[in-house]
Amino acid sequence: MYYREAGQFKTSYKTDQAILPLREDRIGLMLSLVMAVVVVPLVSNDFVLASIMIPFLILALATIGLNVLTGYAGQLSLGTGAFMGVGAYACYKLTTIFPDVNIIVHILVSGLFAAAVGMIFGLPSLRIKGLYLAVTTLAAQFFLEWCFIRIPWLYNYNASGAIEVPERRGFGDLILTGPAADPLTRYFVVLAIVIVFTLAVKNLVRGRIGRQWMMIRDMDIAAELMGVRPLVAKLSAFAVSSYICGVAGAMFVFFYLGAAEPDAFSITLSFQILFMVILGGLGSLHGSFFGAAFIWCLPIVLRTWLPAIGIDLGAETVFHIAQLVIGALIIFFLIVEPHGLARLWQLAKEKLRVWPFPYG
Amino acid sequence: MRNLLIGGLALAAMTAAPLPAQAEDSVYIQLATYRTGPFAGSGIHIANGMADYLNMLNERDGGINGVKIVVEECETGYNTQKGVECYEQAKAKNTLVFNPYSTGITLQVIPKAAVDKIPILSMAYGLSAAADGNTFPWIFNPPMTYWDGATGVLSHIANELGGLDQLKGKKIGYIFLDAGYGREPIPLLEKMAEEYGFEIVQYPVPVKEMQNQSAQWLNVRRDKPDFMVIWGWGAMNPTAVKEAIKIRYPMDRFIGVWWSGGEDDARAGGQDAKGYKTLNFHAVGADFPAIQDVKRLLVDTGKSQTEADRLGENLYNRGLMNSVLMAEAIRTAQEITGKKVITSEDMRVGLENLNITEARLKEIGLEGFMAPIRTSCEQHSGHHSMYVQQWDGEKWVKLTDWFPPMTDKVKPLLAQAAQDYKTSNAPWPDRAEPCVN
């Protein structure tokens, strides 16, 4: 009944190759965009914007970044947190050296540094596969974290060892970053960047490069025999993935945290994002959003609303309960659907297509 | 599909529902605490002390001048991200004051405080430079800064040796938590080392390796420093004490900052830890009328999470003192503004005009609990006195008299650091808040 392609005729190659060939999907996307652009800013208070929505979008972008590498190109990486850190520190250095340049430009440029670092640490992937590659990216994680602590130049010899986000204005005299920046402004900037990047990645993965990545993922020898160069395919995957992660990392500090110690980019963050990828669905962009929402928003919602709906417990008990619930839900979802929430979504769509006549 | 819709709607309703409104004649204070994670060993006692004193005031006096204090904890796990989340939550609920209880979180919220008009009370931790009230009108770190503490350790060592000039040629080991907290005193220590001609050897302990310090202590054994100074927190402290015992480091030459002085920290070494010293700026023990009130009204009636035998321990009293400062600030703010239910902006004025005298301490049932505290518009910390306590195998014993930090050494450095902070965080807002007396 819903999601039926019947009656939707494609009369040109353009419509046949559209990102969302189904009208229902297009309507759904429009609705979620309206939701994100109009409804969320209207109904949320500062807390929801600053502590839930902004980090959710940024982490969703980081998840997309890792998904390019792990989901599409099949290269397991545990260095996401560190690559995000490279972006953040690069952006900090750039904006302190060139304070007059628009911060958005800096954020986009700082991704390039992350991409370069990612490519260097991606080199072993030409020889090493699977879990072994995960170990070498783990080395990247530890090495880069060490750099963030031990190279004082990176944090401008700050006594506290933390990077602090200065106030930056742009688009007229709008305060974009720093403590005085309005959460709403930050939300819109983040949202715009995330939408543009999602669209770009979507087009990348369904184009020539993306298909090469997927060939490498599915069977690298066959791909090589068909003329896909592993060096180019793997390193480009590392570069694109690290670039996106770097941008996400820079935004994480500049639009969400406001200041960051090296600890913010620890292995915990890498794991968190890997879980978002796995739970959301490997090789799925909307899955990245599902995964980020599940891992980031749900604990906060639980922590905030368990007390608010009258369950009065100590702060630490609420914290423990939230962790228990999240853990149980992760196991539940992975048992019900090992391919992640994206696959669950797809199944739901297939069911909706034939509903209410399941055998029709 | 229907379930999904209902679930989605329920979630949306939950997210959109307004936060509970503030009741009449009450003020809200959020306590950022950590009862979970690797720092819980220290954090639980602090959290208990903070909550107990405020709740005791509610039970005994019906709050402060009839205004109840709504106390709510927010679990940070000593994690900076969660701490910022707690801060945002506290802001949404109009907290009077925010206590980060982590130097990392403090650094994070310092720039936000002035914008959101929420005073930050970082009692003897956080950014030392924040003592400068003209640069940081919203940040308070009484009774003294880490830099005061560092000079306190040095002057105690000098005392032991027989004069500051005796420091020359000595080797002092500095083992610290490799985070904002442990790195904070390094600039001062380095400066003092230059001035007095002693050598400072650093042994950083990464947060993840807190419970495995054998490498650092192996180096200590090799370097043989004359004194060891520790800036540790949470699980790092008991580990360090045990490691020091293991390499047979003379415990009476091992001196910690006030955060390394939990009972559990020294107890880990038992009788062997005898001689271990730390700084302190309040009394240990439950022999105070106010603490007995806590026992009578909360602990004995089961309204507190504190175990009866932990009452009056060092970190518990630290948390309690934190709440004493808040309660006194509320009272001061009420006097100055004439309002009963004050706002966070009034609270800032209260914190800025704290004057807790001996007589006042006696009135609130804490005579001799701490040195009198006074803050002013310029001086948000106050360089108050401290003392050295020593572990006798079972409990802390006061070793020295109260003594002041080397204020003349710290002050110029503080001014310089505040200036540096201002330039590196330009454009840093100038103080716009008038000085109310």
Description:
The complex is a heterodimer of chains A (360) and B (437). Chain A has 360 residues and is mostly helical. Chain A has a single domain (43-354), classed as ABC transporter involved in vitamin B12 uptake, BtuC. Chain A is built from 14 helices and four strands. Chain A has helices at residues 13-16, 23-43, 46-72, 80-97, 103-122, 130-150, 183-205, 208-218, 220-225, 230-257, 267-280, 285-308, 315-336, 340-354; strands at residues 163-164, 168-170, 174-177, 259-260. In chain A, strand 2 and strand 3 (174-177) form a beta hairpin. The longest helix of chain A has 28 residues, at 230-257. Chain B has a seven-stranded mixed β-sheet, with helices on both faces. In chain B, strands 2-1-3 form a three-stranded parallel β-sheet, with helices on both faces. Chain B has a two-stranded parallel ribbon with strand order 4-5. Chain B is α/β, with parallel strands linked by helices and 437 residues long. Mean pLDDT of chain B is 89; it is low at 14-23. In chain B, strand 9 (254-256), helix 10 and strand 10 (277-280) form a beta-alpha-beta unit. The longest helix of chain B is centred in the C-terminal third of the chain and has 24 residues, at 314-337. At the A-B interface, helix 3, strand 4, helix 12 and helix 13 of A face helix 1, strand 2, helix 3, helix 4 and helix 15 of B.
Brief summary of the model shown:
Chain A is mainly alpha-helical. In chain A, 71% of the residues lie in helices and 3% in strands.
Question: What layout of secondary structure does this protein have?
Answer:
The complex is a heterodimer of chains A (360) and B (437).
Chain A (H helix, E strand, L loop, with lengths): L12 H4 L6 H21 L2 H27 L7 H18 L5 H20 L7 H21 L12 E2 L3 E3 L3 E4 L5 H23 L2 H11 L1 H6 L4 H28 L1 E2 L6 H14 L4 H24 L6 H22 L3 H15 L6
Antiparallel strand pairs in A: 1-4, 2-3
Chain B lengths: L1 H15 L9 E8 L6 H22 L6 E8 L4 H13 L5 E2 L3 H14 L3 E2 L17 E2 L5 H16 L9 E7 L2 H4 L2 H11 L2 E7 L8 H10 L3 E5 L4 H11 L7 E3 L6 H5 L9 E4 L8 H11 L14 H24 L6 H9 L2 E2 L1 H6 L9 E2 L12 E5 L4 E3 L8 H18 L13
Parallel strand pairs in B: 1-2, 1-3, 4-5, 6-7, 6-8, 8-9, 9-10
Antiparallel strand pairs in B: 10-13, 11-12, 13-14
